[in-house]
Amino acid sequence: METSGRTTPSDLQGAYARVRAVTERLASVLSAEDQTVQSMPDVSPTKWHRAHVTWFFETFVLSEYIPGYRAFDDAYAYIFNSYYEQVGDRHPRPERGLLSRPGVEDVARYRSYVDEAMETPLGDPDQPGLRDLITLGVHHEQQHQELLLMDIKHVLSRSPLHPAYLSGPLRRAPGHAPKAGWIEHDGGPVEIGHQGAGFGFDNEFPVHTVHLTPFGLADRPVTCGEWLSFMEDDGYRRPEFWLSDGWAVVNAQRWEAPLYWQRDPDDPERWLQFTLSGVRPVDPDEPVCHVSYYEADAFAHWTGLRLPTESEWETVAISHAKGDNVLHDDVLARGAPHPRPTLSTNAMIGDVWEWTSSAYSPYPGFRTAPGAVGEYNGKFMVSQYVLRGGCCATPAGHVRPTYRNFFPPGARWAFGGVRLARDP
Question: Residue 6's Cα: distance from chain center in Å?
């Protein structure tokens, strides 16, 4: 059963141990109360993330590859299943925050129990399909590390105390964002998709040829300062820039700025933003973050430009896949993840995910894997848009030019930003 990419880590046991340790590191600064709150249906409690990724290994590895394996708690199969219909019923997603039990200590015991049991398959991972499955589980947990940070940011933002996930100053190098330039491409036939060197999710395959017309891609993402200009020009109040669905959402939810932005109560002309380090002034040189596809598309229309297709983005990123503002293993020593000011150009990895104009759909020849693991990506290929490039909360080693993230067009709690494209 091929569930992930074409290769697996040479030190699978080490990769497993590292990813499990990082998850616990991310949760270690949170109280039990922090880890239980669900601030909206799309958010999951921290303790649920910690347990769900553990359930993944228990369900798809231990139960399948260890004869007579005894689950830690049979009830967890219902509580911590996310969306795998073929595995069985599951607790409703919007009600995950209502589960005061199991508590964080129970979840810690669950993780330890499964980690100990995983020593057996990790010690002999050459059974058919096992290496691929464990590798998928490692990358699945890395996805949930990013989700954990996205979700706890939303949780903490709902408190009138505006508590920080991790106190301390945001990193800021001297200088200002350079004027945006353009990376020009002549178009023509290009190969898109994962070439097979290193891990890739199934939705990154197979490689296929796409014909591009000539285009230009901005050499940096849109900044907060540029977004402020859009706002000052009544961008959120001018329907001519907006898709019909987006305009309906803007009015229904009364958007007037990116998520987590708020006016300074002492100076209404000044904007503040909630970060994982607490409330900070909006930095005009940072990439704008926490905007939806609707907002990204409206901003592009306001500029007279457009969003890139995912094929355009990937084609340029193959030769510009640099950028180091991602989530490293020593995250707590580095400070809270946050987009850095855009002080250089041609970096397309990290800081913010970048919306494309491409609907999330299968590549030509895509086939889902058999069994429940096949539900991982394919079932979501409707009503969503593709983002590329990773962000400040994406684990290092988990991001690559071919990675296809996806969210509904109205989603704003992800670290989503904007890079513009133009026609000749």
Answer: 22
Sign of CA dihedral 191, 194, 197, 202: negative
340 secondary structure, DSSP code: P
Least confident span in 124-128, 146-150, 227-231: 124-128
Q: Which CATH architecture has domain 182-422?
A: Alpha-Beta Complex (3.90)
What is the amino acid identity at position 272? L
Quote the tokens at residue 216.
């230009």
DSSP 22-36: HHHHHHTTS-TTGGG
Give the pLDDT band (50/70/90) at residue 375: low
Name beta bridge partners: 417. Answer: 354
Domain-wise residue ranges, the chain: 12-157, 182-422
By C-alpha distance, which of 408, 397, 61 is closest to 199?
Answer: 397
DSSP state of 325: -
CA distance 49 to 35: 9
Which residue in the block uniquely carries the two structure tokens 């073929």?
86
Task: Tell me the two tokens of residue 245.
Answer: 């669905």
Q: pLDDT tens digits for 157-181?
A: 999 999 999 988 766 666 678 888 9
Long-range contact list for 29-38, CB < 8 A, 24+ apart? 29/165, 29/166, 29/332, 30/152, 30/165, 32/103, 32/104, 34/152, 34/155, 34/156, 35/104, 36/97, 36/99, 36/100, 36/103, 36/104, 37/97, 37/155, 38/94, 38/96, 38/97, 38/98, 38/155
What is the phi-psi region of residue 31: left when phi exceeds 0, alpha when psi lies from -120 to 50, beta otherwise?
Answer: beta
> What's the token pair of residue 150?
């996205």
How far is Cα 301 from Cα 280, in angstroms, rounded to an integer? 29
Q: How many Å apart are CA 276 and CA 260, to the nearest integer?
A: 11
- pTM equals 0.94
Query: What is the sign, positive or negative, of the torsion defined by CA atoms of 410, 416, 418, 421?
Result: negative
Q: Does domain 12-157 have CATH number 1.10.150?
A: no
